[in-house]
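dumping this here before i forget
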Amino acid sequence: MALSFNPQELPVIRTDDHLPAVAADELGPDALRRRFAAPPEWQPEIVVERRFTEREPTHASVLVPLILRDTVSVLLTQRTAHLTDHPGQISFPGGRAETEDADAIATALREAHEEIGLHARDIEVLGALPTYTTGTGFIVTPVVALIEPPFTIDADPFEVAEVFEVPLAFLMTPAHHRHHEVDVGGIRREFLSMPWEGAGANSEPRRYFIWGATAAMLRNFYRFLSA
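structure:
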């Protein structure tokens, strides 16, 4: 669905540098396992976007792959520009549920394999975060998992333009969470962005604009880890 605005051109109305970052010792694999094994009392901050489509709501899952390098990173994809839903946007690997999927976790694992070639044997599922409903009508379950290198990535070129990683510590620092507002069809909408300055496939510096549903799910992950 094509956007009527360029999110990267909208002004930043505020950041959240008043909120503490998740401590480094809470972002290691053992700490993450403990957090999901005994989750705290908490509430997701963002649950439902304003709808801008009349189509029937559809269940979907995404995999939130946490890569166990020297410092944990989050694997993300950039969608190809010709896709119908969220073209060109940065997202987690995932997609809509199919009838053969046993549950939301099965959907996330299947979609991650189909989309980026990540095998279930390389994935340690920690658990799922509460669903997030997008403005395009997807009820998305984020499934958080640890990935121990080495692993193989074989992205589907029809769906995925690029696969890259962002340090988890950067994404779990609210000073990097930027708020924007935009008027769409007479309705004022607010969304988050978390731009990351990294290196592209050619090793040249590149800005990855993480925003919308992906940024909102990362914000909920921050709330879960900081609770």
